[in-house]
Specification:
This protein has 21 helices and 16 strands. Strand 8, helix 5 and strand 9 form a beta-alpha-beta unit. InterPro entries: AAA+_ATPase (IPR003593), CHLI-like (IPR045006), MCM_dom (IPR001208), Mg_chelat-rel (IPR004482), Mg_chelat-rel_C (IPR025158), Mg_chelatse_chII-like_cat_dom (IPR000523), P-loop_NTPase (IPR027417), Ribosomal_Su5_D2-typ_SF (IPR020568).
Length: 501
């Protein structure tokens, strides 16, 4: 008898449905066989031992005379199968084939790793797998209990949580049915925000620059001597960025589920990733024999904070060109290529020189010290250069905390983003930094005086066409923060203050 079940090979955002076929027969002579075919990776190929032991320890196999010949086929055969989440689907297919169970499970997806005693273990990639199952028209999915809240984020498909293989088998036979898992609501508060703007004493210019960056999703760099608050400033961003929409939050959590970094973080707070400067090229942009997302993709729709920016390997820094421009990461292999989303806002921090000099001309010091480490094309993709100078202890003692500073910033940024979303809706964009030159021409009208100021400034500062358009986008964000329908000279002049001289 042949039995069929279904599971999913997840990827960063959804996945591919995999059909599991099991054929069982008794062999009078010769050894038994349990073979898995269909381009199975090492972890899938090892499932045979886990499945047989779990079935036996769950007392689900009736005694049959003779050796067993079982073939498990995973289709489509050309798709590389990787991960331990195939265990449950393989076990159920084999169980139904061996026991001759005639049960229609064509609308059910099975996901879970088996321990030797038949307990179901938590797996990664459940959320994108549920998304893929829903897209393919399946009506129910069975997952490990630890993955239930994650799976129940998706509406339109019934989720069942199981603790063991025995429970799933009883559910299929109808002897003990599951109750559906209630829909999981996403937390839309700022619970993940730890550092507030009020925690940073002084540095008003840098705070204003970060508010502009957050309002338009602009890339920014914080330059100043050690101990002046650059890292603390960057860590205020999760507390002032607008919460993700439902679709955006599901997209972000699907990526983290696939990467195994979700860890129960069901929230609408944009991700904040801060890789160490010793991180490899693969760790930052992704890669591997089976391509996995890197920090750039894990920061999708959030912030990639790169502290000690010039201390990253030059190849690693240059690999940011594509995600900063195209908002995707392409990983090419001999047989295929994979694209991961990378719609990020990059915030970098650095000392003006390796010695941490405390002079005022940070840009000049930085360019002289790090010109062989940070390439021009990367610097060209940074919209705001924010100085974070040393503050004397005497002045620091005089600064009082301004209550409500973070709340006011949140309100400003949310209002600015709402204006941008309305303006850019027809282009499928949500923030000014995402605009291309064509979109700028379509949605932004410049007065003669503003156009003349922009041209004159670009010529004097020797801006590239890319930097010119970034200047326009930053000016538009400043205008949005002020609630202005048009870009005015004063908005351009403020944007120019944040350009490296």
């Amino acid at each position: 008898m042949i039995a069929r079940t279904h599971t999913v090979q997840p990827n960063a955002l959804d996945g591919t449905i995999v059909t599991v076929e099991a054929d069982f027969m008794l062999v009078k002579q010769g050894p038994g066989i349990f073979s898995i075919v269909g381009l199975a990776g090492k972890s899938v190929d090892e499932a045979s031992d886990r499945v047989l032991t779990a079935l036996r320890n769950s007392k689900l196999l009736t005694h049959k005379e003779g050796a067993v010949r079982a073939i498990i086929s995973l289709a489509p055969a050309a798709l590389k199968k990787d991960g331990s989440l195939f265990d449950l689907a393989i076990a159920i297919a084999y169980f139904m084939a061996r026991e001759g169970i005639q049960k229609d499970v064509s609308n059910t997806v099975f996901i879970g790793e088996l321990s030797l005693d038949g307990t179901l273990r938590e797996v990664r990639g459940v959320l994108p797998a549920v998304v893929a199952a829903k897209k393919a028209g399946f009506t129910e999915i069975i997952v490990p209990k630890e993955n239930a809240a994650e799976a129940a984020l998706v509406d339109g498909i019934t989720v069942y949580a199981a603790q063991s293989l025995l429970q799933v088998a009883q559910h299929i036979k109808g002897t003990a049915l599951f109750s559906p898992v209630p829909h999981t609501e996403i937390d839309d508060t700022y619970a993940g925000a730890v550092t507030m703007l009020e925690d940073v004493r002084g540095q008003e210019t840098a705070k204003r620059g970060l508010i502009i960056a957050a309002a338009g999703k602009h890339n920014a760099i914080l330059v100043g001597p050690p101990g002046t608050g650059k890292t603390m400033l960057a860590r205020t961003l999760p507390g002032i960025l607008p919460p993700l929409s439902l679709d955006e939050a599901l997209e972000v959590m699907a990526i983290h589920s696939y990467a195994g970094t979700l860890a129960g973080g069901i929230t609408s707070v944009p991700p904040f990733r801060s890789p160490h400067h010793s991180a490899s090229h693969v760790a930052l942009v992704g890669g591997g024999s089976i391509p996995r997302p890197g920090e750039v993709t894990l920061a999708h729709r959030g912030v990639l904070f790169m502290d000690e920016f010039p201390e990253f390997d030059r190849r690693t820094i240059d690999s940011l060109r594509q995600p900063l421009e195209d908002r995707i990461v392409t990983i090419a292999r001999a047989q295929s290529s994979v694209q991961f989303p990378a719609n990020i806002m990059m915030i970098a921090a650095m000392n003006p020189s390796r010695g941490g000099d405390q002079g005022d001309n940070y840009a000049e010091q930085m360019l002289e010290t790090y010109k062989n480490k940070v390439s021009g094309p990367i610097l060209d993709r940074i919209d705001l250069w924010l100085g974070v100078p040393h503050i004397s202890h005497e002045d620091l003692a005089k600064i009082n905390t301004q209550s409500g500073e973070t709340e006011r910033a949140r309100d400003l940024i949310r209002a600015a983003r709402a204006r941008q979303k309305e303006r850019l809706q027809k282009h499928g964009l949500t923030a000014n930094a995402e605009m291309t030159a064509r979109v700028i021409d379509d949605v932004i009208e410049l007065s003669d005086s503003v156009r003349a100021l922009l041209v004159k400034s670009a010529e004097r500062l020797k801006l590239s066409p890319r930097s010119y358009h970034r200047l326009v986008k930053t000016s538009r964000t400043i205008a949005d923060l002020e609630g202005s329908d048009d870009i005015k000279d004063i908005h351009v002049l403020e944007a120019l203050q944040y350009r490296v001289q």
